[in-house]
């Protein structure tokens, strides 16, 4: 299958990270010249600056990645479970593809799609076995087709010059620059989670921690505590919304008590943003129970004994992030962003992955 496929895709999931199969995945992709897409929990399993990395699929992924999956003739799925945020409407997912499914959990085999070749195995073990037998292949034409789709797709606006408020993509870029892309990024659940997954740019193994599956709001702060304890001396950044951060905000007491150098970026839009977005798109703007209030995060940080800053101007983003990095202990930054910013593109519920709501045409810097 691998030798004869003309339009193959590797879908790498969390199992690659759990197996620490980073080198094996990269070697397999390079030998077979197969483009690599990572699921939400698979992000940071494969460097996103690599020429074979095509990005993130599914509900909030890139249109060209979903197009590539739709037109593929072979999917090599490694340590992933075909959840609905990846597949969209399963009856329209990758209709032309054969499937090699590698997962350590036998219950995943055939649960969503019947694999052509099921391989119940640890990701590293399976990839090493494949590397022992696969021959080099070339897929330059297929890669060019994906690139053409990328160029043709409506671009996501990452910076609007006439908007003075802090913009999510500028915040992410400032954090990446301040950490040289080597920090561990821990996201909560919501719009900020999707922005981070889609646009941060993860190049180092297991540096993206997030809550998939159940989508547990409040995850980020305690998860960052574990990351800080397990990776002493490394930069640890929480990226959270003003809804999720309030669900476990009391953990600041533990963070300060242990003097953990965690930096917290709150993307504060005064809403449960993802729910508000769904109400805008699918409920005719009938907003219900999504407008929220919150504390003065600067005063709250200081009350716990941490440093706190508020940023209302986009021009202050980079300097404030750099200042936070110079502080040895925990820091909270309240970024007051545009209230009704949306995460786009987006697959509507029940639709095929290629039927995405696209960003509106506008001016500005594009991704």
Query: Secondary-structure element sequence?
Result: EHHEEHEHEEHHEHEHEHEHEHHEHEE
Average pLDDT rating: 95
Number of DSSP helical runs = 13
Span between termini: 34 Å
Which CATH class of the largest domain applies here?
Alpha Beta
The CATH architecture designation of the largest domain is 3-Layer(aba) Sandwich
Radius of gyration: 21 Å
Described by the principal axes of the CA atoms, the overall outline is: globular
Strand content: 15-25%
Which homologous superfamily in CATH is the superfamily of the largest domain?
Thiamin diphosphate (ThDP)-binding fold, Pyr/PP domains
The profile of the biggest β sheet is: 6 strands, parallel
Helix content: 25-40%
Taking pLDDT < 50 over at least 5 consecutive residues as the criterion, the unreliable ranges are none
Q: How is the largest sheet built, in terms of strand order?
A: 3-2-1-4-5-6
């Amino acid at each position: 299958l691998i030798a004869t496929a003309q339009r193959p895709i590797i879908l790498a999931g969390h199992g690659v990270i759990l197996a620490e199969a980073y080198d094996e995945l990269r070697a397999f992709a390079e030998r077979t010249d197969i483009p690599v897409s990572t699921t939400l929990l698979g992000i940071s399993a494969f460097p996103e600056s690599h020429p074979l990395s095509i990005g993130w699929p599914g509900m909030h992924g890139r249109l060209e990645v979903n197009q590539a999956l739709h037109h593929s003739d072979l999917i090599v799925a490694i340590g992933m479970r075909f959840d609905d945020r990846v597949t969209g409407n399963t009856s329209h997912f990758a209709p032309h593809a054969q499937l090699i499914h590698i997962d350590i959990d036998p219950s995943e085999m055939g649960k969503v799609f019947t694999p052509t070749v099921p391989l119940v195995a640890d990701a590293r073990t399976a990839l090493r076995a494949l590397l022992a037998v696969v021959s080099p292949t070339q897929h330059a034409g297929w890669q060019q087709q994906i690139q053409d789709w990328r160029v043709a797709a409506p671009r996501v606006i990452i910076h609007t010059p006439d908007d003075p408020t802090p913009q999510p993509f500028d915040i992410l870029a400032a954090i990446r620059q301040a950490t040289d892309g080597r920090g561990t990024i821990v996201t909560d659940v919501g719009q900020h989670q999707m922005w981070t997954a889609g646009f941060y740019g993860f190049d180092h193994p297991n540096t993206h921690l997030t809550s998939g599956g159940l989508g547990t709001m409040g995850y980020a702060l305690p998860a960052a505590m574990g990351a800080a304890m397990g990776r002493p001396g490394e930069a640890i950044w929480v990226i959270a919304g003003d809804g999720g951060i309030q669900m476990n905000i009391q953990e600041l007491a533990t963070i300060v008590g242990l003097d953990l150098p965690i930096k917290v970026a709150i993307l504060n839009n005064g809403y449960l943003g993802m729910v508000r977005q769904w109400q805008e798109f699918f409920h005719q703007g009938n907003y219900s129970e999504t407008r929220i209030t919150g504390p003065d995060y600067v005063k709250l940080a200081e009350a716990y004994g941490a440093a706190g800053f508020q940023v209302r101007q986009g021009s202050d983003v980079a300097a404030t992030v750099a200042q936070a990095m110079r502080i040895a202990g925990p820091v909270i930054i309240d970024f007051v962003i545009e209230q009704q910013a949306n995460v786009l593109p987006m697959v509507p519920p029940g639709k095929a992955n290629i039927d995405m709501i696209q960003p509106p045409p506008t001016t500005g810097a594009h991704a």
